[in-house]
């Protein structure tokens, strides 16, 4: 790590971006009715990109930025790396363990346990990226990211899927799915393949690396306006490169394709650059408080939402769950069922905001 980097100062724009990303994640994860959801609030079935598909990579990008801001100061003080390694590993294990706990709810059916998920991937990306940040410079990180994306692309489009005799990029019939079928323990999300599987985790690490590169940029001696311009212009270029790469290796969240990494990281960079300009440079902070509050306990808010949603789904009134009652009532009043489903999801976000607000006001920050 270059010693000329400045010590990090907290970015209000990053805090807000993290919080609003978690809020969006909660909203799309818990609609009023899975049968009635606007298309962009669904994950893309296969190739393509929706609003929902952007949320996970944006959060991993934020993880990367946060690593650069948090650990640069520790490196400048020459803190013993052994202590840092220990804390990184423990934090990763705690996030992974919480992910496993959520996967076991409500029945604790160990025979059908899934070993992958959103928190699992966050834990792995954090672990690998933090270790990389402590032991490599930004050029080495960028080169490693490029190599991973190219090798992943070549492997997926040149290596025939075993048992098929040809290259395939279809659900359950591709190299990543075959590797999961051979080596991934436990239950898979889609039966014979998993969107957070083994092979696709490698390009997801690159998403974290792109965030680290953005974080490193924020620590340079460039002026704030220059940093914002670089984030937005580089983001546009990277997203465009991902689009054109997608013509041969489709943008696909389930496979976390190389083109998907570039398109989503480019978007995240443009978003951060825009928020940084508006909030940190221009000082326009009106309306960002909910994001900052959610962001202060981001993973805790995500976990609480998962548990609270399960509790709501277990509640029954006249044979209907709370969400079913809400959607049915609004639909019978003449509202589009998709809008009713979204309104329930937004209301659920506000319900989860209450404990986050209480924690924030009491200055309680839960760090896994």
Q: What features would you describe in this structure?
A:
With 368 residues, the chain is mainly α. The chain has two domains: 1-42 and 286-368, no CATH class; 54-283, no CATH class. Helices cover 65% and strands 2% of the residues. The chain has 13 helices and four strands. It has helices spanning 12-29, 51-76, 81-104, 118-135, 138-158, 175-183, 201-218, 224-245, 258-281, 289-296, 298-314, 322-332, 337-361, and strands spanning 169-170, 173-174, 316-317, 320-321. The strands form two sheets. The chain has a two-stranded antiparallel ribbon. Helix 1 (12-29) packs across helix 9, helix 2 (51-76) crosses helix 9 and helix 10 packs across helix 13. The model is unreliable at 1-8 (pLDDT under 50).
């Amino acid at each position: 790590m270059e010693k000329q980097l400045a010590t990090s100062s907290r970015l209000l724009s990053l805090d807000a971006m993290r919080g609003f990303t978690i809020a969006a994640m909660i909203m799309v994860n818990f609609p009023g009715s899975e049968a009635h959801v606007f298309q962009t609030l669904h994950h893309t079935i296969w190739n393509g990109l929706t609003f929902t598909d952007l949320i996970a990579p944006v959060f991993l990008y934020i993880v990367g930025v946060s690593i650069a801001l948090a650990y640069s100061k520790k490196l400048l003080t020459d803190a013993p790396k052994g202590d840092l390694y220990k804390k990184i590993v423990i934090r990763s294990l705690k996030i992974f363990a919480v992910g496993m706990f959520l996967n076991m709810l409500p029945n604790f059916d160990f025979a059908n346990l899934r070993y992958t998920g959103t928190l699992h991937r966050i834990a792995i990306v954090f672990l690998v990226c933090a270790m990389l940040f402590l032991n490599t410079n930004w050029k080495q990180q960028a080169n490693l990211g490029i190599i991973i994306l190219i090798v992943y692309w070549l492997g997926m489009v040149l290596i025939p899927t075993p048992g098929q005799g040809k290259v395939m990029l279809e659900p359950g019939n591709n190299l990543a799915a075959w590797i999961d079928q051979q080596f991934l323990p436990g239950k898979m999300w889609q039966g014979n393949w998993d969107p957070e599987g083994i092979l696709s985790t490698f390009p997801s690490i690159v998403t974290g690396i792109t965030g680290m590169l953005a974080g490193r940029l924020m620590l340079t001696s460039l002026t704030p306006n220059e940093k914002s311009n670089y984030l937005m212009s580089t983001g546009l270029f990277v997203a465009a490169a991902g689009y054109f790469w997608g013509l041969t290796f489709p943008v696909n969240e389930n496979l976390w394709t190389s083109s998907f990494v570039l398109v989503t990281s480019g978007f995240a960079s443009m978003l951060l650059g825009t928020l940084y300009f508006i909030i940190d440079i221009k000082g326009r902070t009106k309306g960002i408080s909910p994001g900052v509050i959610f962001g202060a306990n981001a993973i805790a808010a995500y976990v609480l939402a998962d548990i609270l949603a399960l509790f709501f789904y277990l509640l029954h009134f006249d044979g209907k769950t709370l969400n079913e009652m809400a959607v049915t009532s609004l639909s019978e009043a003449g509202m589009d069922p998709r809008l009713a489903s979204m309104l329930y999801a937004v209301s659920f976000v506000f319900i989860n905001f209450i404990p986050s607000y209480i924690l924030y006001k009491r200055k309680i920050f839960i760090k896994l």
